[in-house]
Amino acid sequence: MSGRLSIIGLGPGDDRYLTPEARDALEAADALYGYGPYLDRVPEREGQPRYPSGNREERKRSEAALRHAADGAQVAIVSGGDPGVFAMAAAVCGEIERGPETWRAVDVVVVPGITAMLAVAARVGAPLGHDFCAISLSDNLKPWPVIEKRLDAAASGGFVIAFYNPISVARPWQLGEAFARLLRHLAPSTPVVFGRAIGRADEAVTITTLDQAAATKADMATLILVGSPQTRLIAREGRAPLVYTPREAAEVTA
Ligand code: SAH
Question: Is the beta carbon of 164 within 6 A of some atom in ligand 1?
Fold first, then answer.
């Protein structure tokens, strides 16, 4: 008998962002797999073993969970945010593609979650009100020139850009390079939003401009939104400004 593998999005951190579907799927699982800090967000339950692993161990984690599910168990892998956005759902698909035929018989269920980009946008207004894209700045899984090409295309195409994985100890220079690259296409006054640890106790949101955006202000828990030429701020007395991108398209001016 083949079991089920649920790949569950936990949202950005706040429990209220966990969907009822995700809560049910966590409850129904015989065993939980995931990156340790994500598993820590799920309450422990007697009789439900958990198998934490490191954040670079996506392939091993996927294989172990697939093997377990192929034996007939109801297995869950947890992911921060949405499991389909730079996360475990694609890792699992990759292992199914490469793996034994029996893994194709596993019932795979992807349970969506609120991705970081949407949580950050909601904090500041409506920066994603018109066309946008998401780019992971990690060059662990793709060469840097590919990222540069995408930055040029996104900025010159008039997209609002969300940066996931902006910086890490092993990747200290990429974010600064990315801002410099975008300044070739975009005005220095282009709004930029840093959203850090959204939904967690140490949440912080900063609104700045592209020429003032400092890579040192970001860490691995930060998502960055860079506006399009249409993105603007609405100043408000005694309140943070609203950042928004109007819904109607104008000429591409970048
Ligand atoms: N699947 C996740 C993204 C994984 S990539 C999702 O859908 O959100 C990891 C990156 O996501 C981090 O480097 C950061 O850029 C972003 N991120 C994840 N959680 C975040 C949070 N609570 N606040 C801000 N950014 C977050």
Answer: yes
Give dist(CA 41, CA 36) in Å, integer: 9
Residue 28's nearest CA partner among 59, 61, 69 is 69
Task: Find residue 136's DSSP bridge partners.
Answer: 164
Confirm or reject: Cβ of 11 under 6 Å from ligand 1. no
Alpha-carbon distance 102 to 70, whole Å?
7
What dihedral angle (degrees, nearest 10) is formed by the CA atoms of 88, 90, 93, 95?
Answer: -70
Q: Identify the residue whose C-alpha is closest to ligand 1 atom 5.
A: 86
Distance CA 242, CA 222 (A): 20
| Atom of ligand 1 minimally distant from the CA of 13 | 22
> Can you list the alpha helix ranges (DSSP code H) found in 50-128?
58-70, 88-98, 116-124
Nearest atom in ligand 1 to the alpha carbon of residue 164 is 15
Give the model confidence (pLDDT) of 46-55 as tens digits: 999 999 999 8
The predicted-structure confidence for 108-132, as pLDDT tens digits, reads as follows 999 999 999 999 999 999 999 999 9
